What we know:
The protein is built from two helices and five strands; from the N terminus they run αβββαββ. With 111 residues, the chain is α+β, with helices and mostly antiparallel strands. Strands 1-2-3-5-4 form a five-stranded antiparallel beta sheet, covered by helices on one side. Residues 1, 4, 6-7, 46, 97 line the site of zinc ion. The site of zinc ion has 6 residues, from helix 1.
Amino acid sequence: MENCIFCKIIKGEIPSQKVYEDGEILIFKDINPIAKIHLLCVPKEHFAYLSELNDSRAALLGRTLQKIATLAPSLGLGDGYRLVINQGESAGQTVHHLHIHILGGETLGWE
Ligand code: AMP
Ligand code: ZN
């Protein structure tokens, strides 16, 4: 997808601090962390919103959540973590390529 910053990161056209990659997802460090550990998990398939899920993307998302749960201890998240998906501008979505925020590494508050 042209002009998508996360597609450019996936293609290696923009640098990122990768922590995990396989054939269908990439996990990298958020450039502006709001927790001690703040990672972003993106599917390599470009789609903008959670509201664009279809059966195939829903299955991908399920595998992705399972992968995050499996990887969590090795990412320093063994004590717990929070997953966030911002759906739409009102929720604060600024990058229009579906991504899961992975927050942890400390005790998280709830505003
Ligand atoms: P959202 O507000 O849910 O769309 O989240 C977008 C996230 O992408 C924000 O937390 C940004 O800090 C992060 N971000 C934007 N550009 C980059 C980048 N080049 N590398 C890593 N994280 C980025
Ligand atoms: Zn994209």
